[in-house]
# Entry
Amino acid sequence: MSWPRVQLVVTADDFGYCPRRDEGIVEAFLSGAVTSVSLLVNGAAAESAAELARRHQIPIGLHANLSEGRPVGPARHGASSLLGPEGFFLGKMGFREAVAAGDVALSQVREELEAQLSRFQELLGRKPTHVDGHQHVHVLPGVCQVFAEALQAHGVLFTRLPLERGLGSCTWLEAPARAFACAVERDARAAVGPFSRRGLRWTDIFVGLSTCGRHMSAHRVSGALARALEATPTGHCLTAELMTHPGYPSVPPAGGCGEGPDAFSCSWERLHELRVLTEPTLQTRLAQDGVQVCALQDLDSKRPREGVPGEAALETFLEPSQL
# Structure
């Protein structure tokens, strides 16, 4: 197969969630398997994670969190539409349901995003290389507009657009996981306009919804990139992001964002991702496929050019995913 040249950023999400997760992420970075991380500033290990990023010069962005644990902004001092009665965020599905019902005050979303951006600045002494959303909250209706405005105000140009081509053919995904992934894609399509109007940039290709946790393998990562490139002319340069969640499993009560670690973080799936990413098979497969693993700042799409980066590929990639 003749492949176009692809520049791939491999991002490890949930940096700062717990020391064991962070240990695995740093190990993956030092091996060259991960090239970027996204920090949870409300994570139990956020401060030590920031120190690790400085020590190892890890490119680091903000993993904006509106769904898990405790807030860092004004909401922590009183009642808020973002929180349940115990003072925690509403959860992965609870936040989505509240947004859909119109029960979330977008002004409070903006306050929390501003607080997390400020906290990142306090921890790292600089602005994030990028901002994405924990559990993809940043592409939700309404939230995406506020998110884009906040990034523009803080001078952050790069985000994530979680559109992965061909999810409907990923039969290994269990029905709930596929339904969630397809819902994320629908939201991401609708977020293109608000993101573009605020000058945000993203990679041409995104992979990670079909390769999360136990579903990750060198074959599936390669296959996801191949699906995205099917209609792309040979020799055309594209940029891509692989979303990952590697690490050593959390051991309660350490970790989390104020409520302790969740089952996903405590499971073997984190270690499985770490092993897939750091074993030679994936790196060899990517090299054979003409994929160059690189850092975010090395992407061609970060260079100023006419139009919105990532937009050129959208017509090819925005076909609906079927359940």
